[in-house]
């Protein structure tokens, strides 16, 4: 077990202990967190200065440096936020809905902890403290994976938080900082055995990557493409003040204004005044034709600019006819994404994620109850296994939906080394079945998303191993523009033409019936040829990379 997985495992154990923590002990720990941050202020600022010096050497933008920077005032604000969270009522076990069914049974909806939450965020060190506090308040353990820009600051803050947790008798592993680069994130996103949900905080690239790779549910936000609309009836002084503040106070935060829409009847007089203040504050302006006629040397705003989240001192400006046009402009990105999100939202698997995670966590707790007899333990273990299969099914359905909606970006993947790595990962089941694996691998560079290439090969090879016979063989040949995976075994017990359909599986299959359906969907997306055949007691799947 790697160090990162061991952290996740320890977080799971801590989450179980944390469910039994009293509201008072959690409140005391949260207040102790705030107090420790204030008492270690010099150490935190020293660590932060080292991070800032390195960030400047790496030529990070001023906006990103501001996001990274801490001073006494900001640390005091973070400490106060933790104390305020400590003063909040404990949400755990609160009944927020109760009704009596016609049968006389009383049904209650009760707030319970999720379990283990993974927070992945970029260079804002305040998130380290605030995310940990919110998770602890709700009875959840948290794994914190911050950006490398704030590594020293995050480390010092996490040390303070863990000390406060231990001081109040709560499990120290309930708050853990995960070190490492992208490889650590990639590993964490596969650990759905230990982690219940992941929350990415950052730019679109980070969020898209997490959504593509995560095997657990993802709670995410979209772009912070915030607009300010100045109507013809707006007070000019207020308009100038609001636009300047919305853009320049903290330009690197996701709620900073990125677009300015202004009514055409006031644009000629008011836009030059607003633009003068913005330019003096260092903001670079881009605009449509109407705005550029009013502001000298303003750059042209491209189509991409209107959906861009700059997180910098850049702002796009558009002159609109009325409020209706302003609303259309603000919602155009949402309208474009509607069809893609519609299918995702319609998929029932999305709604299954949270209840499955909650059931799983409750069964975790029951299984570890030493007072259970074997008579009770067996059915609970059976339920636990069933929920595990339900979670696996849910993840596969979610992945299918993402593939169908083209949510993956292509790159160049070297297929032969990837096959070799997959075979190393599958050594244990190969040995357990006493299988013989033969490979003929030529070099092939394939334009495909790396994660999907991994899934494609994993599903093909797992299928060949699972549906084999003890002492059988698996043959893998990558030659020219084709991949062939064949395995020994008895003939199918169903119509071979349905082998790539959803929920098609043999009588004794332990899978979800979606593995080869996912293979077909990936092949359809990339226009690969896909065929199945059976001859000489060998099952063969051929993929032609057109």
Describe, in plain words, how this protein is organized in 3D.
With 546 residues, the protein is α/β, with parallel strands linked by helices. The protein has 4 domains: 3-213, Aldehyde Dehydrogenase, Chain A, domain 1, CATH 3.40.605; 226-337, Aldehyde Dehydrogenase, Chain A, domain 2; 347-404; 411-544, Histidine kinase-like ATPase, C-terminal domain (Heat Shock Protein 90, 2-Layer Sandwich). It has 19 helices and 18 strands. The protein has a 5-stranded parallel beta sheet with strand order 7-8-11-9-10. The chain has a 5-stranded mixed beta sheet with strand order 13-15-16-18-17. A 4-stranded parallel beta sheet has the order 5-4-3-6, with helices on both faces. Helix 3 (41-57) packs antiparallel against helix 7 and helix 14 packs antiparallel against helix 15. The chain is globular. The two termini are 39 Å apart. The model is unreliable at 342-351 (pLDDT under 50).
Itemize the secondary structure elements and their pairings.
Layout: H1 3-18, H2 23-39, H3 41-57, H4 62-68, H5 72-87, E1 95-100, E2 106-110, E3 116-121, H6 126-137, E4 141-145, H7 151-167, E5 175-177, H8 182-188, E6 197-201, H9 204-213, E7 226-230, H10 236-248, E8 257-263, H11 264-280, E9 284-287, H12 289-294, E10 299-300, E11 314-320, H13 323-346, H14 348-367, H15 374-404, E12 411-414, H16 415-425, H17 427-432, E13 436-441, E14 445-448, H18 450-466, E15 473-479, E16 482-488, H19 515-525, E17 529-535, E18 538-544
Parallel strand pairs: 3-4, 3-6, 4-5, 7-8, 8-11, 9-10, 9-11, 13-15
Antiparallel strand pairs: 1-2, 12-14, 15-16, 16-18, 17-18
């Amino acid at each position: 077990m790697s160090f990162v997985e061991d952290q996740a495992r320890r977080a799971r154990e801590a989450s179980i202990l944390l469910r039994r923590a009293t509201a008072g002990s959690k409140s005391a720990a949260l207040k102790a967190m705030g107090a420790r941050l204030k008492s270690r202020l010099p150490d935190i600022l020293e660590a932060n200065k080292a991070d800032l010096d390195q960030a400047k050497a790496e030529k990070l933008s001023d906006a990103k440096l501001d996001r990274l920077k801490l001073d006494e005032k900001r640390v005091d604000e973070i400490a106060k936020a933790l104390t305020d969270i400590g003063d909040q009522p404990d949400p755990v076990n609160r009944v927020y809905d109760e009704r009596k069914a016609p049968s006389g049974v009383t049904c209650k909806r009760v707030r319970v902890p999720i379990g283990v939450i993974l927070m992945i965020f970029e260079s804002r060190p305040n998130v380290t403290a605030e995310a940990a506090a919110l998770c602890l308040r709700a009875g959840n353990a948290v794994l914190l994976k911050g950006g490398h820009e704030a590594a020293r600051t995050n480390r010092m803050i996490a040390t303070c938080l863990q000390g406060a947790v231990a001081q109040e008798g709560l499990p120290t592993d309930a708050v853990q900082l995960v070190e490492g680069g992208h490889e650590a994130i990639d590993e964490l996103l596969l650990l759905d055995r230990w982690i219940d949900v992941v929350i990415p905080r950052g730019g679109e690239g980070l969020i898209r990557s997490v959504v593509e790779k995560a095997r657990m549910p993802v709670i995410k936000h979209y772009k912070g493409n915030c607009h300010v609309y100045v109507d013809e009836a707006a007070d000019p002084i207020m308009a100038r003040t609001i636009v300047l503040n919305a853009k320049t106070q903290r330009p690197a935060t996701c709620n900073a204004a990125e677009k300015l829409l202004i009514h055409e009847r006031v644009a000629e007089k008011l836009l030059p005044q607003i633009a003068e203040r913005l330019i003096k504050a260092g903001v670079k302006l881009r605009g449509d034709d109407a705005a550029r006629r009013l502001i000298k040397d303003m750059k042209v705003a491209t189509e991409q600019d209107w959906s861009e989240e700059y997180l910098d001192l850049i702002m796009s400006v558009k002159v609109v006819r009325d409020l209706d046009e302003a609303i259309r402009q603000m919602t155009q990105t949402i309208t474009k994404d509607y069809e893609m999100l519609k299918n995702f939202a319609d998929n029932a698997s999305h709604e299954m994620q949270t209840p499955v995670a909650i059931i799983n966590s409750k069964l975790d707790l029951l299984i570890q109850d030493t007072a259970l007899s074997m008579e009770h333990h067996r059915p609970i273990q059976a339920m636990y296994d069933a929920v595990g299969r339900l979670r696996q099914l849910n993840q596969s359905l979610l992945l299918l939906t993402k593939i169908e909606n083209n949510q993956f970006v292509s790159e160049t993947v070297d297929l032969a080394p990837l096959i070799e790595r997959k075979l190393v990962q599958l050594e244990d089941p190969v040995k357990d079945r006493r299988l013989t694996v033969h490979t003929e691998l030529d070099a092939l560079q394939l334009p495909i998303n790396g994660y999907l290439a991994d899934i494609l090969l994993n599903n093909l090879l797992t299928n060949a191993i699972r549906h084999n016979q003890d002492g059988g063989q698996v043959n893998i040949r990558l030659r020219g523009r084709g991949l062939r995976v064949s395995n020994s075994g008895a003939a199918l017990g169903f119509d071979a033409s349905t082998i790539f359909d959803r929920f098609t599986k043999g009588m004794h299959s332990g899978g979800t019936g979606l593995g080869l359906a996912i293979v077909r969907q990936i092949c359809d997306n990339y226009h690969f040829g896909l065929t199945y055949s059976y001859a000489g007691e060998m099952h063969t799947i051929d993929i032609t990379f057109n």
